[in-house]
TrEMBL record:
This is Uncharacterized protein. It comes from the Bacteria. InterPro entries: DUF6328 (IPR046291). The keyword Transmembrane applies. The lineage of its organism: Bacteria, Bacillati, Actinomycetota, Actinomycetes, Kitasatosporales. Pfam families: DUF6328.
Amino acid sequence: MGRTPADGKGRGTAAEAGRRSGREETEEERADRKWSDLLQELRVAQTGVQILFGFLLAVVFQPRFADLSTTDRNIYVVTVMLGSATAAALIGPVSYHRLLTGKRMKPQTVTWASGLTKLGLALLFCTMCSTLLLILRVALHNVVALWLVGAMALWFLVCWFVFPLWALAGNGGTPAGRPGQDPATDDDEGTGPGQGRG
């Protein structure tokens, strides 16, 4: 009931932080957990990007590449640039972590890396759509390719962005099990007490 004894001061602070975040953990433990979660997500995205980018780099060396129209070549160049930007954004968090390790900036690193990952997902969406457009234009040679790409882009948007936002809206916009919790301090992407913003 009263104050935490002087020798348990650190434990009291950790408990208070735990109550705010819904877990009994210090800011550093929370940052470690969030970083671990982010790494798992990045592994999935990076694998897909590496396969797609490898395919894109190989296309230019295929015999049929010389037969592509100017428009298709331009689409190819845009697609390769988007793929490069996607790879850079999704590999960027690894560089952040490596360069800032030991600098006591883990919470900030998690925040910045999370933002970069979101940017990478947006770029991956554009890369996928551009790749589909190139392939379907070569395969179909008609306007149906545009309709198919549009339909698939809509499906990507629903799977990647609409479903998560729908789940959040259905939960009243607050983290599960913590009514009244500020979403900005959610234990996944927000900056909690004392965390810096990148």
